Amino acid sequence: MVVTLPDFTVDFNRVTIISAIRHPPDIQNFDLLEILKLTFMVQDIRLAEDMALRDIVIIDVQKGTPAHATKFTLPFFEKVKLCVVVSEWLMAY
What we know:
By secondary structure, the chain is of the alpha+beta class. The chain has helices at residues 32-49, 66-69, 74-92; strands at 2-4, 13-19, 54-60. A hairpin with an 8-residue loop joins strand 1 and strand 2. The longest helix is centred in the C-terminal third of the chain and has 19 residues, at 74-92.
């Protein structure tokens, strides 16, 4: 589930909340790359249609289990870092 808050923060930032784990938690259907893809798809739309200075994305993993935590590996964070750097570079042009 993706929820974008309707109002800006005091600093004119837009906040988007993504619930990454459904209830009951199912580790078999949990795919971090799909969550990352969804996050960037939402951000592409936000960048095209919104005039916020910055986007704050909160990924909610409150219902997660230790098995979910094992999916957060170093290669995953490297992919996230690469996606963020590329998107910032594209926004500059």
